[in-house]
Specification:
The chain has three domains: 148 residues, PAS domain (Beta-Lactamase, 2-Layer Sandwich), CATH 3.30.450; 68 residues, Signal transduction histidine kinase, dimerisation/phosphotransfer (DHp) domain (Helix Hairpins); 172 residues, Heat Shock Protein 90. The chain contains twelve helices and twelve strands. The strands form three sheets. Strands 2-1-5-4-3 form a five-stranded antiparallel β-sheet, covered by helices on one side. It has a five-stranded mixed β-sheet with strand order 7-9-10-12-11.
């Protein structure tokens, strides 16, 4: 039950309780009154007849006389008043209620004659007295209802006590339920929040389907998001620390070589022209390697920034991708690789040409580097609505990625040893190498190429995936979406 509904129901019960108690009191008194009404009426009528027989004596209505018979009738439950024909009081057993010399007006004097009127505390009866058809006076008798009043008061106390007991019970039940449903759960949630703020372990509790349950669910969701963000930040920090340490080491090696060969070029060393040319060549190569590493590091840092955006231009797909897949023949000849190129692209695309060329260079360089001498290398680009190249590995022909519509695919595929499945998921991590031997780092590059490739492709609203089977080869697929007519990239 929702807390709002529960509180409204509790408030309704507490509010309706006094009304219910009043109703029960009224009903009980009414029932008691109905039970006592008949028997009490006959009892009072019997008493009244005795009193009337005495008071119906005309001699009692003479002024300034003694009335011993009337005095004998008066006691705690009977009160008598005698009036002359003009309403003047001749006798009163209760002067506080009906004082001597008090006079009733004609209307009050003649009201309710011969009628036994029932009040809350007494029965009232009024009757005229005649002597030979001449009105000589009136008498009024009040018969107290002591038993009735006592019974009503007792029942009122019973109802009051019962009301207090029920109210206290309901209050106690509501207090316990409020503590269980609100206070206890809120304190537990506050305690979990405090523990989470203090980096303590939190055991998640079952959640009920109410407002506090929803609040708890939101807290757990926020907790998971914060923990994931912390882990991501911690991982990024570790990666940065590792990257700084690795790049510092990798820069130190060529820098040491540059310094050593530069010292050999001093006049004092008297090197031959051939040796000087060789040393200068080595220095330039090492400097170029350092420049490449610093360029990759700068680009990797820029791409990681959420505020950094690439500048896109609209290009003709056929022309751009034709240019992108060409000009790798010289690199393949150095390793005696057989190169096959395929390009069938239609439509226009929004992209950053410089960064796409960087992507192609990174992927082709990696493929050449991990291909054996005399092996095979394939580079292709094709639109999703055109035929796929026939040289795709068998495990690639039914790939779901290649079925995406309104896309262009850039593929670099090489035959080789392949990549183990457990290492494919780490390929796009910075500085990750399938072969962790560091002695050949200089020959392999900076280790940031695939990380940069992934970020560049994602900045183009595309995806990049690596597929590999050991002892067969590796295929890297980059998918870029085709632009809409208004020039906005389709995202999938």
């Amino acid at each position: 039950m929702k807390i709002k509904t529960w509180l409204l129901l509790s408030y309704f019960i507490v509010m309706i309780l006094p009304l219910a108690a009043v109703y029960v009191l009224f009903a009980w008194i009414q029932s008691y009154h109905n039970d006592q009404k008949v028997s009490e009426y006959f009892q009072m009528t019997g008493k009244l007849q005795t009193i009337i027989s005495v008071l119906d004596n005309p001699d009692l209505y003479k002024p300034n006389i003694e009335r011993p018979d009337v005095d004998q009738l008066v006691h705690s439950e009977v009160s008598i008043a005698l009036f002359n024909p003009n309403g003047l009081v001749l006798y009163s057993s209760d002067p506080a209620a009906v004082p001597i010399q008090f006079a009733l007006n004609k209307e009050a004097l003649y009201e309710n004659l011969y009628s036994l009127e029932q009040g809350y505390r007494s029965f009232d009866y009024k009757q005229p007295v005649f002597a030979q058809n001449e009105l000589v006076g009136f008498f009024e008798v009040q018969l107290a209802r002591e038993e009735w009043v006592t019974g009503v008061e007792n029942r009122s106390w019973y109802i009051l006590g019962l009301f207090i007991m029920i109210f206290a019970l309901i209050f106690l039940v509501v207090a316990v339920l409020v503590n269980r449903k609100l206070n206890k759960r809120l304190k537990e949630l506050m305690g979990q929040m405090t523990s989470f703020a203090n980096d303590q372990v939190i055991n998640e509790t079952p959640m009920k389907k109410d407002e506090i349950g929803e609040l708890t669910a939101h807290f757990y969701a926020m907790k998971k998001q914060i923990e994931a963000a912390r882990e991501a930040i911690e991982k990024q920090q570790q990666e940065k620390e590792y990257m700084i340490a690795t790049i510092s080491h990798d820069l130190k090696t060529p820098l040491t070589s540059i310094r050593a060969y530069a010292e050999l070029l001093t006049p004092e060393q008297k090197q031959s022209d051939y040796q000087q040319l060789e040393y200068r060549t080595i220095i330039i190569e090492k400097a170029n390697y350092m420049k490449q590493m610093l360029d990759d590091l700068l680009m990797y840092t820029l791409l990681q920034s959420p505020t950094y955006e690439l500048e896109f231009v609209e290009v003709d797909g056929s022309e751009f991708f034709e240019m992108l897949v060409e000009d790798y023949e010289p690199l393949c000849k150095n390793k005696k690789l057989q190169l096959a190129v395929h390009c069938q692209v239609t439509g226009n695309y929004e992209l950053n040409p410089k960064q796409m060329m960087r992507v192609a260079d990174n992927l082709v360089s990696n493929a050449i580097q991990h291909s054996e001498i005399g092996g095979q290398l394939w580079i292709g680009a094709f639109s999703s609505n055109l035929s796929k190249p026939g040289w795709l590995f068998d495990f690639m022909k039914d790939s779901e990625l290649l079925k995406a519509p309104n896309s262009v695919f850039f593929i670099v595929q090489n035959r080789g040893k392949g990549i183990p499945k457990d290492k494919i998921v780490h390929l796009f991590e910075p500085l990750f190498q399938v072969d962790q031997a560091r002695s050949k780092r200089d020959a392999r590059g900076t280790g940031l190429g695939l990380s940069i490739t992934k970020q560049v492709i994602e900045k183009h609203h595309g995806t990049v995936q690596v597929f590999s089977h050991e002892e067969i080869g590796t295929c890297v697929v980059c998918r870029l979406p085709k632009i809409k007519k208004e020039g906005v990239c389709n995202e999938f």
